[in-house]
Amino acid sequence: MTDGPWLVVGLGNPGPQYAGNRHNVGQMVLDELARRTGATFGGRSGGLLHRRPQAAVAEARLGVLPGGAPGPRVVLAKPATFMNVSGGPVAALAKYYDVPLERIVLVHDELDIPFADVRLKRGGGEGGHNGLRDTSKALGTKDYVRVRVGIGRPPGRTDPADFVLKDFAKAELKDLPWLVDRAADAVEAVLVEGLEPAQQRFHTKA
């Protein structure tokens, strides 16, 4: 494994009013990864000529390699744009840090997975997820790794667009720290073990 960096992006919406939303669980996972590494997020333009930063960024090493060596270098990023226009910051950061496509990992909420499940895949459709759709457009491909954090389907006739912009229910909050921790473990596994071994571990029911 080369020592080039990985880019791990947590999707969500900016601002405290959105911080607890289901749509922001990807950014919750990034906060956990930063906590594990002792890194802190700062503004970074991604090499663009914008006056305002396009993402909050933390640089660290993540996980532990076999034999006890520190894990790979990683750029943790939380776009400062709204979810629907996440692609610009992702593409800009990949270019700025010279991260190849195979080392880009997006962490995001997933309606089609039961709450508290985590699934991993490379490529495929976006399932109506506007953050993924915009990222695929900006990168010119869908062939990047996704860490899909299950939030479940909305109850009854609730509009999915409204459901993702609400905070987790009280019954879910007790399991949310466990879910965030598990998703952070999944990110580490992808970086340290590779996608297929990580899939085998996280797609297997205990």
Spatial strand arrangement across the major sheet? 2-3-4-1-5-7-6
Radius of gyration: 16 Å
Largest sheet: 7 strands, mixed
Number of helices: 7
Low-confidence regions: 45-52
Number of E strands: 7
State the helicity in percent bands.
25-40%
Please tell me what the overall shape is. globular
> Could you say what the CATH architecture is?
3-Layer(aba) Sandwich
Report the structural category: alpha/beta
Order of helices and strands: EHEEEHEEHEHHHH
What gap, in angstroms, lies between the N and C termini? 30 Å
What is the total number of structural domains? 1
CATH topology: Rossmann fold
- pLDDT averaged residue by residue: 90
Work out the strand percent.
15-25%
What labels describe this entry?
206 residues; alpha/beta; Rossmann fold; 7-stranded mixed beta sheet
Short summary:
This protein is α/β, with parallel strands linked by helices and 206 residues long. The chain contains seven helices and seven strands; from the N terminus they run βαβββαββαβαααα.
Please tell me about this protein's structure.
- It is a single chain.
- This protein is an alpha/beta fold and 206 residues long.
- It has helices spanning 25-37, 87-96, 130-139, 160-163, 170-173, 176-193, 195-202; strands spanning 6-10, 42-44, 55-61, 73-79, 104-110, 118-122, 145-150.
- The protein has a seven-stranded mixed beta sheet, sandwiched between helices.
- The chain starts with 5 loop residues before the first strand and ends with a helix.
- The relative contact order is 0.19.
- Mean pLDDT is 90; it is low at 45-52.
- Hydrolyzes ribosome-free peptidyl-tRNAs (with 1 or more amino acids incorporated), which drop off the ribosome during protein synthesis, or as a result of ribosome stalling.
- Belongs to the PTH family.
